[in-house]
Amino acid sequence: MGDILKNAQPIWKRTWFRYLGAFFIVQLLFILCEITAWAPNFRPGGEFFNRILNSQFFTEWFTLYTIPQFNV
């Protein structure tokens, strides 16, 4: 009986691992921008995007970051 090894695909070549890696890289960029205050400067007008950012969901319930644009 010969020992036949299955050629398994390395983990870094799998599709889900690439998506997970991209997710972690984006999260690190968000954290870096938050620490260094490189956040985007949006106009504080009555725009639709600012109304979403200032809604109760993103100000009280879903606050992972201190910069509201990153919580969306």
UniProtKB/TrEMBL annotation:
UniProt-listed InterPro entries: YfzA
Chain segments annotated as transmembrane: 16-39
One Pfam family of this chain: YfzA
Keyword Transmembrane helix annotated: yes
Keywords from the named record: Membrane, Transmembrane, Transmembrane helix
Source superkingdom: Bacteria
Protein name (record): Uncharacterized protein
